[in-house]
């Protein structure tokens, strides 16, 4: 039961911090090291009354670490099978090649651009994001802000 929802994006954008915020507890390990999340971490949450089966996934990147590679493979197949993707980006940095590759792999899957770290100075290319996503929300998973906007976007997409 619930909408199969995958939290995805390149490493370090705050996917696991968002997972924990939505789950209301420390489900996923959060560190400043890229490549922290490897296994898929799941939980069912209610967002604006809608049950979401959330999956927090390994950050998408090329890596020589064999364990992380397996995590990235799982992450990609989750994205491909998802009913909804929360596509997370770091607003404090310009988009990277890995962000662009991730956007291209989304195809027709319903997705919401979740621009995280909104508490920091913005350096992201907003016009590029706007050209790729119909739904865009700005949040700070660290501070817990923007959840209402995310809730509205989920209601609109589904
Ligand atoms: P993931 O690799 O995408 O799962 O990212 P994490 O959730 O592990 O977070 C990576 C780093 O970014 C950690 O040091 C977090 O504390 C930090 N971080 C996550 N969300 C925010 C945010 O909204 N604002 C700021 N300033 N830092 C954040
Ligand atoms: Mg993580």
From TrEMBL:
What's one GO BP annotation on this UniProt entry? tRNA wobble uridine modification
List ligand-binding residues for GTP. Answer: 12-17, 31-37, 56-59
In UniProt terms, what function does this protein have?
A: Exhibits a very high intrinsic GTPase hydrolysis rate. Involved in the addition of a carboxymethylaminomethyl (cmnm) group at the wobble position (U34) of certain tRNAs, forming tRNA-cmnm(5)s(2)U34.
Q: How does it assemble?
A: Homodimer. Heterotetramer of two MnmE and two MnmG subunits.
Q: Which residues of the full protein are shown?
A: 217 to 374 of 453
For the ligand (Mg(2+)), the binding residues are 16, 37
Spell out the protein name for this chain. Answer: tRNA modification GTPase MnmE
Compartment list:
Cytoplasm
Q: Which gene encodes it?
A: mnmE
Indicate the family of this protein: Belongs to the TRAFAC class TrmE-Era-EngA-EngB-Septin-like GTPase superfamily. TrmE GTPase family.
Q: Which UniProt keywords apply?
A: Cytoplasm, GTP-binding, Hydrolase, Magnesium, Metal-binding, Nucleotide-binding, Potassium, tRNA processing
- Identify one Gene Ontology CC term for this UniProt entry: cytosol
**Species the sequence originates in:** Caproicibacterium amylolyticum
Name any one GO molecular function. identical protein binding
């Amino acid at each position: 039961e619930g909408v199969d929802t995958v939290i995805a994006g390149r490493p370090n954008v705050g996917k696991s911090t968002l997972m924990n915020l939505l789950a209301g507890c420390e489900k996923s390990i959060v560190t400043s090291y890229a490549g922290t999340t490897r296994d898929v971490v799941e939980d069912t949450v209610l967002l604006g009354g809608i049950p979401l089966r959330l999956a927090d996934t390994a950050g998408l990147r090329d890596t020589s670490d064999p364990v992380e590679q397996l995590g990235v493979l799982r992450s990609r197949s989750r994205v491909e099978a998802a009913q909804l993707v929360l596509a997370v980006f770091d607003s404090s940095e310009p988009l990277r090649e890995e962000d662009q590759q991730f956007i291209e792999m989304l195809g027709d899957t319903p997705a919401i651009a979740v621009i995280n770290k909104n508490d920091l100075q913005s350096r992201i290319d907003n016009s590029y994001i706007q050209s790729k996503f119909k739904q865009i929300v700005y949040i700070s998973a660290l501070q817990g802000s923007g959840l209402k906007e995310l809730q509205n976007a989920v209601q609109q997409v589904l």
